[in-house]
Backbone:
């Protein structure tokens, strides 16, 4: 048989204790049964003796009244008591205070004999004891051994003193039937008790094993669960601390980010304002370039007019140059004619010389002027080209200014949209900050809860160890089983 575990032993021991109580209760019941049976049996002789005493008292009264002589009254009384048999074998006897047999219906040979020396098989002087009880108490019970059909049998007699004649009137009942009933009852109770013990022990054993095995499994599960809970609570505590730390750092980062976003929003708003100003300036630049293009257009026309005037002036200068050449020829002819004229022509020769000099200077001035006009025409043509180029550049500038204006408008709109987006981001960041604060608080609460969970897991381990002790397993065995499970 396998060795019982501690819990099984305790359950079986509890059953044994209950059975022991049951056995004691049965013993008490047997004792009470026997006692009640004895009382029931002994009460019958008492009532018969009292009835018999009443009969004797009746004859004693008749004797006192003088109706009967004492001897006659006593004989009549003895005859009546002799005939008062009951239960087939039971009878009434009479002795006196001197332990003499007065009347014995079954053994008449004892009548008139001194029974003071009579001993039962156990050495009891029962007739002497009858007399002593009656002398002392007036009545009582005496237990002794008496012959029953050749067999010594325990018997109990009730005796009572009839004071008028100092008779000890008694009757008894054999105890063998009582003893048989008690013995039979004891045997039945013993058999029932043994059966109950066997059944109860078997049930207790089966019940103990049916309880201890699941309890052992539950203990293993609880131990494993306690270890897992402890490990999980430590992990949760560590993670909660890390989360709280991360949440704090995240809150600081969010605060800095919020400040940066606010600064960025301010810069974006400033950019939007600058973009609006740039748009205004671009519009002004566009207007100025438009006016510049128009001025350059007018300049082009003016330069063309100047070139045209220069061309006409060049024609005039050419005419002047031709006139100067003709004048020079005329002056030469005049000088020739003056030389031919002699003295009279000297004054005319001087005039002709002056005219020739004037014509020469006029020709030279005309040439210089012509050169200057040519240069002016060249510069005018260059100016026209430059003006055309400037017009083209201004046109390009105007187109660029328009593009820039569009881009600036787009930048302004984007800046405003970005500013609104940053405002929404600031709101979102504020919400995230609140959530982070709540996460930090929750992380701290989780850390506290994990500490409480750790404490509870420790209490669970303690309870598991107590259960291990209850079922008779060592702490190491419980730990090993928990580890295997």
Residues:
């Amino acid at each position: 048989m396998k060795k019982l575990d501690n819990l099984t032993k305790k359950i079986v021991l509890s059953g044994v204790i209950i059975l022991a109580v049951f056995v004691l209760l049965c013993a008490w019941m047997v004792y009470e049964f026997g006692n009640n049976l004895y009382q029931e049996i002994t009460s019958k002789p008492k009532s018969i003796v009292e009835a018999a005493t009443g009969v004797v008292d009746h004859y004693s009264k008749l004797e006192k009244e003088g109706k009967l002589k004492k001897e006659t009254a006593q004989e009549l009384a003895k005859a009546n008591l002799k005939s008062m048999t009951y239960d087939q074998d039971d009878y009434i006897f009479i002795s006196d205070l001197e332990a003499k047999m007065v009347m014995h219906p079954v053994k008449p040979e004892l009548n008139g004999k001194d029974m003071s020396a009579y001993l039962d098989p156990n050495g009891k002087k029962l007739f002497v004891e009858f007399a002593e009880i009656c002398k002392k108490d007036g009545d009582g019970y005496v237990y002794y051994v008496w012959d029953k059909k050749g067999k010594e049998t325990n018997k109990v007699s009730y005796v009572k003193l009839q004071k008028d004649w100092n008779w000890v009137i008694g009757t008894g009942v054999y105890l063998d039937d009582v003893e048989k009933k008690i013995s039979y009852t004891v045997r039945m109770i013993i058999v029932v008790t043994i059966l109950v013990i066997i059944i109860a022990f078997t049930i207790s054993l089966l019940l103990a094993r049916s309880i201890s095995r699941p309890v052992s499994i539950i203990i293993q599960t609880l131990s494993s669960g306690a270890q897992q809970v402890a490990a999980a609570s430590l992990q949760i505590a560590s993670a909660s601390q890390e989360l709280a730390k991360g949440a704090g750092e995240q809150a600081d980062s969010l605060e800095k980010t919020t400040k940066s976003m606010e600064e960025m929003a301010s810069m974006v708003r400033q950019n939007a304002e600058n973009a609006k100003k740039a748009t205004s300036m671009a519009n002004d630049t566009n207007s100025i370039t438009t006016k510049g293009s128009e001025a350059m257009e007018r300049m082009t026309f003016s330069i063309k007019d100047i070139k045209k005037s220069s061309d006409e002036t060049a024609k005039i200068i050419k005419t002047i140059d031709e006139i100067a050449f003709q004048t020079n020829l005329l002056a030469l002819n005049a000088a020739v004619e003056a030389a031919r004229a002699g003295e009279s022509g000297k004054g005319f020769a001087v005039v002709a010389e002056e005219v020739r000099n004037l014509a020469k200077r006029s020709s030279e001035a005309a040439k210089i002027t012509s050169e200057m006009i040519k240069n002016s025409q060249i510069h005018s043509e260059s100016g026209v080209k430059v003006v055309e180029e400037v017009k083209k550049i201004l046109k390009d500038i105007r187109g660029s200014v328009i593009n820039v204006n569009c881009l600036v408008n787009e930048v302004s709109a984007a800046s405003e949209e970005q500013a609104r987006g940053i405002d929404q981001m600031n709101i979102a960041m504020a919400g995230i900050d609140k959530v982070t604060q709540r996460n930090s608080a929750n992380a701290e609460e989780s850390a506290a809860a994990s500490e409480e969970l750790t404490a509870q897991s420790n209490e669970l381990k303690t309870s598991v160890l107590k259960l291990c002790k209850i079922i008779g397993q060592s702490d190491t065995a419980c730990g090993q089983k928990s580890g295997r499970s």
Q: What stands out?
A: Confidence is low (pLDDT under 50) at residues 480-485. The first strand starts at residue 92 and ends at 96. Residues 6-174 form a domain with the Beta-Lactamase fold (CATH 3.30.450.20).
